[in-house]
Every structure is written in structure tokens, then in C-alpha cells.
Amino acid sequence: MWVLDRFNFLKILGKPIMKIAFMINHFPVLSETFILEQITSLVDRGYEVDIYAERIADTVKIHSKVASYNLSEHTFYFEEPSNYFWKIFKALKLLIYHLIRRKNWDNFLIILETLNVFKYGKISASLTLFYATVHLLDKRPVYDIIHCHFAPNGIKAIILRELGVIKGRVITTFHGYDVNKKFMREYVEMYKHILYLGDSYTVNTTFTGNMAIELGCPPDKIFKLPVGIDISEYNFQEKILRANETIKLITVARLVEKKGIEYSIRAVARVLKNYSNIEYNIIGDGPLRKSLEKLTTELKITNKVKFLGWQTQDEIRQIYADSHIFILSSVTASDGDKEGQGLVLQEAQAMGLPVLSTLHNGIPDGVLDGKSGFLVPEKDVEALADKLGYLVEHPETWSSMGLAGRLFVEKNYDIRILNDKLIEIYKNIPNPNLIEQ
Fold it and tell me: For the domain 231-412, what is the CATH code?
């Protein structure tokens, strides 16, 4: 509650507070802690932050900051049914309600405009625009900044602003998925004329920035701003191997094709032929879990590979602390999907873990190849096994590599420094109504 009280305290003192809206897909999401860290860091600085999401995420496990910052009281859902037929039925009821019961002709025309598929295409046909508009019409909130994560949310926010149901400067953050995956690229391509109207864009890597430019974003509106972490929450630990200790390898990832976990499992299987004192822990879940578990059975290493499922960030940090080497063998998926930044690589380096990853899209931006870890070509099991074998055979290198990684992350991925830069981007977006801090 102290965070909310501080908001009120600043208001009482008459200090102007920038009002920021975050427009995202689901909230809260354990796999998107980078968004949560950005939000809470801004709240710590005294900014008013509201969160808009299409629907609530799985809340079996929730990051502790969601509760400690009372974010649920500042989160609003567009309450869009997942079943398309029910979505249509409910939309018709809402349309009739606004026409007959509310008798607000202006609002009805705005709602009707969201159904103009000839003008707005897929976002209209999916009724996503409809439900967002219905939710916002009565409030018509005004913000200094509307910060959208992922391109589709940026497109939606720009249209909502055009319809007059929300006001504010729109800044969109690209993460890679939204400019890489084939169907997403096609979607963004369809709306490039709308995306062009955004006020500013941030990208997590040079690669993502180049892809955004290809899709029509004005280069002068694009700023490179990696996703950061709260360094204070990642305690550096020198990695050493004690006598008779098992070497613990770790991967944190969704179990999807672009994470390349098949290749890391195969590489581990090769190394196990020469070094049996290895345990490989995989944190995360996803559609490939069964096939990956089957692979470990085929390779006869089920006793060495553990699938731990989703864990909270606190639990993940503890596993980092108990591990020795981090692996993320990302690849380009068959549908074109690619890694963006690979934030877990920065988390692992912050904890002092040597990392092993691939020469894949934005990943080289975030690893000191040869110093804090090793990067190998995509899908190259032999190269992965070779570098992993080197790290297993030479534990005396872990300490210096871990320290190099920690210093690198402190310099380039500290959320406090990056949010200072983000606030400067906010302030420098041309807007006569922007509240100065």
C-alpha cells in the first residue's frame, strides 16, 4: 500500500505526475517479468501507471510484486470472450444495449466504426477493437503516454486514439516475435500505414530494430532500449565446483521450437558419454514438452534431464544460484519465429553463470562471446557439445566468465538505468500536453 500512498502524497504536495498506460496481451504473466519490472520501476519513481490487458493470465503462480505493488487495482481487462461465437453474441447484445438503453448516438457510431472491416481489417473482424472500445468509451481516459508491448497492441492503441476513446502519445515496444514470426509479420505489414502514425518505438536489439524498419517504422522514431532486470534481485555468486559435486546445467524457456531445446538435449547427451556427473534442469512449459521428454527417453538420459515446469521468478533465481552453467540454444523456427533478446541470458550472467547460446538474431548483443560465455551456430549440436564439454572440463574458467558477465549486465541491462533512458524517451516525444517532471 505504501506505493499508492506515495502517489497520493505527491498529489497533495502538488508535484505533477506523469500518467502512463501499459497496453499488453495478458496480465500477470510469469514469462513476461520484463514488463512487470518496467512497470514497478516506473511506479517506484512516482509515476501513475494503469495496465490494460485483453484478459487475465493464468494465476496459479503470480510474481510477488503483483501483490506488493497492488497492481491488480490498476489493471483493467477488456473482457473479450475466448469463444468466437460467444464473442459475436455478446457483441450484438452490447451493440443493442448502447443503441436502445444508453441512447447515446455518438457512442453507438464509434462502436459501429470498430466493425468496419474494410477500414480496420482483421483487428475489426476479430472484435478485439470492439471490446476495447466498449470498455473505454465511458472513461475516455487521458494519459501522457500509452506504452504498448508488442506491435499488435501498438496498432490497437493508435486506432483507439483515432476513434477518440483514449488519448495520449503512443510508444510501442517490439520484442522480436512481433516482427519475426511469419503470420505476425504479415499482420504488421497489413497495418504498416497505421503503425507509421505511432509517436515512438523501442526495440530490444539491433536485429529487431532493422526488422521494424523493414516493416515501415520510421527510423528516426526508433530507439534501441534492451529489456532490463533489477540487478539488486540477482545476487552474484562465484561459480566453483566442489569435490564430488554434480554439475548442474539449466535452461529457462518456453518449450517451443525457437528455443532450440532439442539441440541442447542432444548436446548434453553427447557430453554425458564422457562426463557422467551432469544434471540438466529445464524450467518452463509449452507444446513441445511431451516430444522433448520422449527425446530424452530415446537418448536414454531421462535420469539426467529434469523438466521442472513453470517456476516463479524467486524460484528461478534460487535455481540459478544452485546451478553452474546456463544454456539457451535458440534457433529460427519453421514458421519464421525467432528469438528477440533472450532476457534469461542476462539474468543468468547477472547471477555469475557462464552461458552457452547461439549466433541467433539479437542474442550476440547480450553475450560477450568468449568472455562471459560461448555462442555457436544454430542447430549445430556438435559445436554446442564441444563448448559445453569445454566448460564441464574446465570449471576453473567459470569464475572469470561469471564476473565478466555480471559486469556486462550491470553496465548494459540495469533496469534503473534503462528506465531513466525510457523516461527521457517519454519526455522527448513531441506533445504540448505532456506533463513535465
Answer: 3.40.50.2000
